[in-house]
């Protein structure tokens, strides 16, 4: 289902072609894998491990821990905003597509949102692999030009007095947004706070 | 190159469609495709710049029709063909492959990443934080990370990010040409005209060769 409650499949009149295309792609990938395995260039067990890491261990729960720590530990927050790569590493998080991290803070006056217009650069160690919408032509083309309109579609109304900052991560830095801590959460533990943080909050397309 | 991949500011793609409770992968071949892209460079080196160059060479109509991992597949196939690893195409970059990554090494390899920042002593910075700069109005035929929508526009150096290899050269096999990369702040009104909200801004990371003093 898409955000407006429409099932994109209902609009899709080529399900049969689509299935054939998927089968074709699956066959091409299998052929490539087989060739590379036969030549001794990849180990299928290693491929399984890559999949397992990104399907089960590396995802937005990691970034949520970073945010919750920043909300509860002012010194950590300061380190996160001055050297995000090092601060994030303190929580045991680092690596591919997060070698150089920058965290940008949402405040009453500033709202940040992340995009990669040229491809789909995304901070993997903290957010995992990007969702399809982040990689879509609609998001990549529009959020740099009409961020407020795109955010509105996500259900996020940015007041006119708040500055919107769009970060196009087209080089070597991967960005994450530090959302504002919701009101009325003073008594929550760090773990309970982490449970409030969403992937979209750390991309900047949701408040938290 | 001024390709379809350089999408910032284009109209006509409609609303951002989202899938509720989206899975990490939508098909098993996507799982294998991600894993292949990450595992192969250990035996047959290539960088993100090379992969992106191949993706950007996909003809515009095919690019728009293809899913994310389908583009990766097309790109990895061409990289392997030009390196003489799989049959088809012309071998332009013959390589002697190394050993594959072992399963036990995967978790650490992910955690280690592929650091791309270079020693800051390799290049001096031409611009200081706060300097007014203009994104050059250039239209290279090869891979570049200078988005079209900032070209010719004036911005301000927000951060000096340090020294990195230059993708325009690296993707062409011309060497790394280490240079400073900067976060540059542009006003949304400068980029999109008076209709954009006055206080809003856009930050984009640009290599020094993309910039000139304003």
Automatic annotation (TrEMBL), chain B:
TM region positions: none
Stretches assigned to the Nitrile hydratase beta subunit domain: 120-213
Domain Nitrile hydratase beta subunit-like N-terminal: 1-86
Coiled-coil intervals, chain numbering: none
Domain of life: Bacteria
Family named by the database record: Belongs to the nitrile hydratase subunit beta family.
Protein purpose: NHase catalyzes the hydration of various nitrile compounds to the corresponding amides.
Protein name (record): Nitrile hydratase subunit beta
Protein species of origin: Hypericibacter terrae
Upper classification of the organism: Bacteria, Pseudomonadati, Pseudomonadota, Alphaproteobacteria, Rhodospirillales
